[in-house]
Each structure stands twice: as C-alpha cells, then as structure tokens.
Specification:
- There is one protein chain.
- Strand 3 and strand 4 form a beta hairpin.
- The chain contains 22 helices and four strands.
- The strands form two sheets. A two-stranded antiparallel sheet has the order 1-2.
- The mean pLDDT is about 90.
- The chain is mainly alpha-helical.
C-alpha cells in the first residue's frame, strides 16, 4: 500500500469536491450538499485505509510522497504520515461529513458556496497535517484562513463581520512571524524539508546557536499559540465560535485549532527541542493560566454556546501543558487529548445547536426540564458531559490522566506545580458542566415547551432526537466510549512518533 499515492488521493477528494460542487451544484445549490457529502465520505474512506495500513513498527513516516517543486530554493511537495498526524487526519475526515450533515437544518442560503468552502477548509487542514516541507505546510496553514474567514463572515450571526475580522487579523500576525522564521531556517540550512532539517539540527556541529534557535522557536510558536489559542492570545475565539453557524464552529473547534497544537508539537518542539525546554515554564504558565481562567469564565457563563467556547480554551490548555512536560506519558496524553477534545467539544457544540434549533435561544435560563421532553437526547448529553468532565471510562479521562501523570513526573522541566494547579481545572470543569446539565435538562419543565390542545391534553413542543441527529451523534458516542475503555489502538499508533519527540526533548542541552 505504501506504493500507492494514498495521501495525494485523499487530498484530491475535497479538491475535486469543490469543483464538483461549483459545477454540478445546480442553480440553487440543491445538489451541493450531496456532492460535498459524497466527496467527504470518500475522503474518510481513504483515511481509514491509511489507518489500517499504518504500521506502528514501520518507518517513522509512512505513505511518503516527494516531488520536486522549487528545487532552486530546496522546496518540494513532500507529504507523509506518522502516528501523530494519522490520528488528526482521521479526526478531520470524520468531522467534515458530520458538520455537513449538521448544516442541513441551519444553512439554507448559498449552499453551493458553503459546501465548497467547507471542502476547501478540509483540503487545507489535511494538507497542513501531512506536509513534511515547512514551506508547503505554511501554504496550507495560511490557506485555512480564507474559507474560515468567509464561513464566519457570510453565514455567521449579527456580529459576524467583526468576529471574522478579529480572527483574520490575529491569525495574520502569527502567520507573518512564522513565515519569517521559515525563511530564516530554510535559508540557513539550504532546505525546507522537515526530515532533512531535523537531521541537520541534530547532527554534531549542525545545530543552531542558542539565541537563533530561541528566536525561531518564538516565531513558530506565536503562530501556533494564536491558533490554539493560548491565553492571552485567545480573544478572537469566543466571539468567532459564538457568531459562526454551529456546523462551522464544530469544524473550527474540533479540527482547525488542532493544527495549532499539532504544529507546536511537530515544529516548535520537533525542530527546536532545546529552546522548547528553556521555554517550558513560560508555556506551562500560559497553559495553566488558560486552564483555570477559561474554566472560571465558563462557570459564570449564562450563554450555552459561549460556555462551551470557554470550556474549549480550558481543555486545550491541558494539551499544551502535556507537550512541554516532555515525558512520553504527557506527550502521548496530549496527542490523544487532541482527538478527545475534538470529539467531546464537537459533540457539545452539536447538541447545543440542536437545542437552539428547537428553543431558538442560547440562554441557559430559558431551558429547564428538557430531559423529560427529550429523554434520548438527555442520555447522550450525560455521556458527552461526563466525557468533557474527564470521568473514568470516557475518552476525556484517558488524555487528562496521562497528561497530569507525565507532568508530575517530568524530571527535565519540573512542571509539577503547574500540574497541581492545572488539576483544579478538572474540578472547575465538572462544576460548570454539571451545573449546565442540571439547569438545562433537570428541574421543572419550562411552560413554553408544553402545548395544551382544545381537549385539554398536554404535549411537549420539543421533539427528541431525529434520525439525522442520531446519525450525527452516534460515531462520536462510540469514540467517547471506545477511547475511554480501550485506547490501545490509538496509543499504539502514536507511541513511536511520541518517543521520537520526547527523545530529542530529553537529549536537548539544558
């Protein structure tokens, strides 16, 4: 299977889907969503082939493809997968059809343009995850900005333009800094190939000076810290998530921001392990600040969608804390937590959107007693809430346990104080999530959810999960339980790549 250009075929599917949507979507765009769903389904099928064909005991990067692009500058189309990028590729290809299916009841205008932009965003995210040339990575990283800006700015809420502009400006600042770092690094080493660069900086006499490495680390990390985002660079996220349509918010929170955590692990730590170790306390401080601050803000939220947005920031702080801890347990926990965050936060946004479609409000106080009207929905929300809170036998517990265990035992960085403070985020998370569930689903039924007929009979105006909604939530519920009970297949695939990162981190000069 390694002889087939499977990665290029996977990348081609959303690109061809964009053309198919624009050409065959029909005058009113009626067929656009169907074409996009078909293209995303084929893309997901190809990612499953990559998952099955990946050999954890094989080469560090598999399914590699290399084609000279700008040889005079040392730039090539070089793509490949290791266990880290494989998990995120699978997450991306799963959530695009989920988001398209979820958009069926909320996106009714400009369907052709919407479907094309969703596929373009998928193409950019997948390209960034499989790129092994840092210049090509930058091209895909920057390309993500265009469809996201338009998806928020055109189909968003009342303040969509300001939210889209803030996202655009924040991202551009980080991208420019990273571009300068990419040019400086590639020019100094004569290549932009990630594999060659790692070999060059690791060999005797080839490593960068401490000052140069730190400047480059900062340039790369600024772009990824904005994308994650780390506090205090987070202010674009809540408004963008709130203003975007739910299906777009799901794509942003579940897959797009993971390019930030992935990029930090792959490039900031992978290329500059010494600088990353020196900066570990600073990154850990910001990550822990994000965990606690965002959780405290979430506790005070009265808007359902905004609460989930701040919970997303808090949970991503655990990912960054695990990466800079540098131990195998912590980094592997961060990798699996990237997947967990995508599944749990995506499910929370989707279920919040389903409630909004029925009640036409995001205000938590406007709900109450929903579990009586929607018992199946209520049962699924219990599972998702427990997952996000990190209860045992759910996926959230697996990632947070590994991160905190690894951070407590990190001999090189001594981050145990941050692990202690960060653990309070688990308690705060349980507090605001359980209180949200109690306010929305339990207690007396809101009278506006009950209708009385002329015969005096009462009935709920809120219907339970539809067949389409059940199809959306079913794969996410399966992953929550699967990763929580038996995470071995996911951990086995990522373990060799994680060990390679932690080995360079541990061997870096202190």
């Amino acid at each position: 299977m390694n002889g087939l250009p499977l990665i290029s075929l996977m990348l081609a599917m959303p690109a061809l889907g964009v053309l198919g949507v624009l050409i065959g979507g029909g005058r009113d765009g009626a067929g656009a969503r169907t074409i996009a769903m078909l293209a995303s389904a084929v893309t997901f099928a190809l990612s499953l082939v990559l998952w099955v064909g990946y050999d954890p005991a094989g080469a560090p990067f598999q399914f590699e493809e290399r084609l000279s692009w700008l040889p005079e500058f040392g730039i090539s189309y070089h793509v490949g997968l290791d266990g880290i990028s494989l998990l995120l590729v699978l997450l991306t290809t799963l959530f695009v059809p989920v988001a398209l299916l979820a958009s069926g009841s909320t996106i009714a205008t400009r369907l052709r343009e919407f479907a094309a932009l969703v596929l373009l965003l998928q193409f950019a995210i997948l390209g960034a995850l499989v790129s092994l040339d840092i210049f090509v990575f930058y091209v895909f990283f920057e390309l993500m900005l265009v469809p996201t800006f338009l998806l928020v700015g055109v189909w968003g809420g009342d303040r969509r333009v300001s939210a889209a502009m803030r996202f655009f400006l924040f991202t551009m600042v980080g991208s420019v800094a990273m571009l300068v770092g990419i040019i400086a690094l590639g020019s100094s080493k004569g290549t932009f190939d990630y594999v060659d660069l790692r070999a060059a900086v690791a060999q005797s006499g080839g490593s960068l000076s401490g000052e140069m490495a730190m400047w480059l680390f900062v340039a790369f990390t600024l772009a990824f810290a904005i994308k994650v985002p780390l506090v205090p660079l987070h202010s674009w996220l809540p408004e963008a998530y709130v203003q975007a349509p739910v299906s777009v918010t799901v794509l942003m929170s579940s897959v797009m921001v993971k390019v930030g955590t992935y990029g930090f692990l792959r490039f900031s730590v992978g290329l500059f392990p010494g600088a990353a170790q020196e900066a570990a306390w600073a990154i850990a401080l910001l990550a822990t600040l994000g965990i606690v601050y965002a959780a405290l803000v979430a506790v005070r939220q009265r808007d359902l969608k905004r609460l989930v947005a701040y919970s997303s920031i808090s949970h991503l702080g655990f990912v960054m804390l695990g990466v800079v801890a540098g131990t195998t347990e912590a980094v592997q926990g961060s990798v699996i937590q990237m997947v967990n965050h995508g599944v749990s936060t995506g499910a929370l946004f989707l279920m919040a959107g389903m409630l909004n479609e029925r009640a036409r409000t995001w205000a938590i106080a406007q709900f109450g007693g929903v579990a009586r009207a929607m018992p199946v929905f209520g049962a699924v929300l219990v599972l998702v809430t427990f997952s996000s809170a990190g209860l045992p036998f759910t996926n959230g517990f697996t990632g947070e346990f590994l991160i905190l265990t690894g951070a407590f035992s990190a001999p090189a960085t001594h981050l145990w104080p941050f692990a202690v403070v960060g653990a309070s985020g688990v308690v705060l998370g349980a507090m605001y999530l359980l209180r949200m569930y109690q306010s929305v689903m339990q207690g007396p039924v809101n009278p506006s959810f009950v209708a009385t007929s002329e015969a005096g009979q009462t009935a709920f105006t809120l219907g339970d999960l539809t067949g389409r909604e059940a199809m959306i939530l079913a794969p996410l519920a399966v992953l929550i339980i699967w990763i929580g009970v038996y995470p071995k297949p996911f951990l086995d695939r990522s373990a060799p790549a994680v060990r390679a990162v932690t080995a360079s981190f541990a061997g870096a000069a202190r």
